[in-house]
Amino acid sequence: MSDLYPVPEDFAAQANVTSADYARDYAESIRDPDAFWGRIAQRLDWMKPPTRVRDVSFDRQNFQIRWFADGELNVSVNCLDRHLAERGDKTALIFEPDGPDSEAKHISYRELHARVCRLGNALRSLGIGKGDRVTIYLPMIVEAAVAMLACARIGAIHTVVFGGFSANSIADRVRDSGAKLIITADEGLRGSKKVPLKANVDAALKLPGTTTVETVLVVRHTGGAVDMQMPRDRWYDAVVDSQPDTCEPERMNAEDPLFILYTSGSTGKPKGVLHTTGGYLLFAAYTHWAVFDIKDDDIYWCTADVGWVTGHSYIVYGPLANGATSLMFEGVPSYPDASRFWQVVDKHQVSIFYTAPTAIRALMREGEEPVRKTSRKSLRLLGSVGEPINPEAWRWYYDVVGEGRCPIVDTWWQTENGGILISPLPGAWATKPGSATKPFFGVQPAIVDAAGNILEGECEGNLVIMDSWPGQMRTVYGDDQRFFDTYFAAYPGMYFTGDGARRDADGYYWITGRVDDVINVSGHRIGTAEVESALVLHPKVAEAAVVGFPHDIKGQGIYAYVTLVAGEVESDELLKELVAHVRKEIGPIASPDVLQWAPGLPKTRSGKIMRRILRKIAENAPDQLGDTSTLADPSVVDALLDNRRGA
Ligand code: WTA
């Protein structure tokens, strides 16, 4: 490949990890992971340093994943207390509000520590302790980070629910986790639009199976009117502000749970991905330091939402464990206009910027002018996450946003991984547009064929990881069997990612996207099965099948085929009603982009829906339908193609 972007010399000269470091340390991390990770673990402050490093087996017989199993520590102490002596007055979080005319806030490590302690005390006073589950349903405001860290301080397990999810989705997560308390706000604000967070919580708590929730703490954010149901609902400030600003941290075992985060899979309801304390924090912190080349004077901005894993690892835990300054942005890239990101970069002198390809593509469509009219001189490194970045968007990011000066780290990882697994280390090797390049320390990717044979050299197939890394998820909350079956049953002894990948002649990895029934819409994972179950809940729907299709901005869009119950009539009103119904059931991110009526679905004689055919129809590639002769009724395909043309 000739399309190689070498490391700029001045960048390499100051990099946290050079190519020589990588060659030496990566080899050691694979040869002797105990020695390697034992040494790296000294980056954390342990109340009791671990004497064991890894107890891992991916085999069905003695399956276990444990790291630093006899170590003890507290995550909030690592993110806050240990910085107070040297960096107490350093800004830990910059809050940039939705609207540019509202005031930004700078929260020092000392202030953040005090706020976390006050909430920790308040939670304890409300009967929350070690092991209890707390749901966090907040906008991108400082309280979101405070809430996560306060849970960590007292050993409660947080489960953050993205503010774009509906009441039903909140209820599903509360039910599965058995949460005792919810922290929410009156309303969220995104691109000047209000999001009725408290009202969504109220609606969720009317649904069955949510009676575990005893208390709802409500942050006053917009000041909008909300119903307070006493004694369940309490204003956050009334309960928290009067608390002492020190709070004894809970001693946690390295393998005690830190959080549950729900994510979509190919079947059933979203699973509760469980991450634990020691390994997760170490991996988030170490990857953040190495991949983002973080220095003490950097202003670092990850545009994700704390409702996703990227927000957990790379807005809150990784940056704060490293004593960095992390910017939290409440708004959206397009409000008030397409310059917003770059204006925020200039305003706060952001040096490291991390976003998703979907945002880049959306901004690219607006042309160069909104970018060019800003300075961006402070930027030195750019990052991408969440979905494959197409080379065209990569080059625009590099040339227009970074003016050819900033390396790009295209970071591949998953909720299940806790942190980045494949990515450039920006000072260590040249990048190629569209490639996540090479594995992080301790990570052993491999590519297998459908039968599980490991492929060598240049190849394409399914991406697996051969051995554990500290940030790996430990289980699906409450369902060890589902954990094993989802990730370790397909290819014995290996972790199966659900992604396809190609390896080129230079050993660079190119992620090709999901190979299962998960679609990636604007970097958000959505299970086709979830959207289908939402659709069939509607009384007029008999059957539904959902596939992904290529979408210019979102990467993938959602394409739904719907069969109505006999006697119901297809109409534009019903179509709108069904889209609204999915929004209500799951949330706006799951709204179908295209909904097509399907008098019948292509099924095998045993009744299995042939999604391959539905994908080709959605892609508008009728010439690539392949063999349809095994269908129970091949004529349904013609009917679907006719309907598509009519659509
Ligand atoms: C996809 C987000 C290509 C992939 C951190 C993965 C990517 C899923 C990249 C996980 C990337 C994430 N290049 N694909 N740099 N990053 N993905 O759990 O399909 O929300 O399996 O975690 O996003 O999404 P999740």
TL;DR of this structure?
This protein has 20 helices and 31 strands.
Please give a structural write-up.
The chain is built from 20 helices and 31 strands. The mean pLDDT is 96. The strands form 9 sheets. Strands 5-4-17-16-18-19-20 form a 7-stranded mixed sheet, sandwiched between helices. Strands 7-6-8-11-12 form a 5-stranded parallel sheet, sandwiched between helices. Strand 16 (299-302), helix 11 (309-321) and strand 17 form a beta-alpha-beta unit. 32% of the residues lie in helices and 23% in strands. It has 647 residues and is α/β, with parallel strands linked by helices. The two termini are 42 Å apart. Bound molecules: 5'-O-[(S)-ethoxy(hydroxy)phosphoryl]adenosine (WTA). 5'-O-[(S)-ethoxy(hydroxy)phosphoryl]adenosine is lined by residues 263, 308-310, 384-388, 410-415, 436, 497-499, 511, 513-514, 520, 525.
Q: Which structural traits does this protein have?
A:
647 residues; seven-stranded mixed sheet; 32% helix; binds 5'-O-[(S)-ethoxy(hydroxy)phosphoryl]adenosine; metal-binding
Euclidean distance between termini CA atoms: 42 Å
Uncertain runs are: none
The multimeric state of the shown protein is: single chain
In DSSP terms (H or I, runs of 4 or more residues), the helix count works out at 20
Strand arrangement in the largest pleated sheet: 5-4-17-16-18-19-20
Strand content: 15-25%
Q: How many beta-strand runs?
A: 31
Protein name: Acetyl-coenzyme A synthetase
Enzyme class: ligase
EC number: 6.2.1.1
InterPro entries: Ac_CoA_lig, ACAS_N, AMP-bd_C, AMP-bd_C_sf, AMP-binding_CS, AMP-dep_synth/lig_dom, ANL_N_sf
